[in-house]
Fold:
Amino acid sequence: MIKTEKISISRTARSRIKDIDFHNLEFGKYISDHMLTSEYKNGEWSVPVILPYGDIVFSPTILALHYGQMVFEGMKAFKMEDGKISLFRKDKHYARFSKSLERMCMSQVPYEIFSDGLIELVKVDANWVPDTPGAALYIRPFSFASEERFGVKVSDEYRFIIFSGPVGPYYSKALKVRVEDKYIRAAPGGTGFAKCGGNYGAAFYPLQLAKKAGFDQVLWTDGSPDLYIEESGTMNVMFVIDGAIVTPPLSDSILDGVTRDSILTLAKDSGIKVEERRISAKELADSIQKGKLTEAFGTGTAAVVAPIQLINIKGKDYTLPPIAENVVMTKIKNELEAIRTGTAPDKYGWNTII
Ligand SMILES: Cc1ncc(COP(=O)(O)O)c(C=O)c1O
Structure:
């Protein structure tokens, strides 16, 4: 048991907060004043420390740089209506982090380091949680192999770090996506369900090709001839077909999105039918053409809910109904935001109030 009550805090003498325009928060650009770090060595995690955010020095041989043992999380804290701060679904993020670490053969980060560390860090940087509409404090816990060796091996040493930064909306407009029919992101038995860095690095090339062709994102498939849809970029995907939310079922090739779970929970509670089932590119095309598919959107911590305006399937563009008619998406998104900001009761216990 790590004594997290001993987390030492050294505060920065020079806060950078006055340089930030909280009304114009480019995603991923600004980093809060402090970070938390803990080290795993000789079979033990050290008591974490909070210190001013800054560079860290490592040997060029650390194993993470060569063999990719690296896992991360992405979560958010929100300013509530009463001025308090809520951290969204901390324990669900921890559970996924642990699953990812296990798949990558990395040392588990003890719950108290993750949980108490997050809470303390957000407290220290509480001024960085934006109160502008649609903005939040994005929090990035991550761990990587820090042992200095160049032989291919499972690392015996790790570093766990948390930093955060205020963010605005991820996408500013509805998305044009292409069903990717040449490259795949993940396959059964692979690491698709884990939030490990390599999954993202491997996705850049097909994404770059799609962007050059004028699309914002790709819709990944399972790689089978029927092109069953999996997910998109850093989002799970949902389609409203005949009034029901249809979304691919979780598997070892799809990330178990915290936003996905939250949206499906809220939808079921509002009496909206939810179908977690496979959906092929052909079914997508047919449903759009017959007017049965009325909405498509991605869900994720960064994007929250991102509407899709166009889907390209096998070279053909399918345009969806106007986003203004996305009644299902808008209803659930508003419900989610109301819980996060404290304007609706948190009946599922999703918020950790700081
Ligand atoms: C590949 C991938 N799928 C889906 C998601 C959505 O997950 P969450 O809602 O937990 O952010 C993310 C973002 O974390 C992601 O990176």
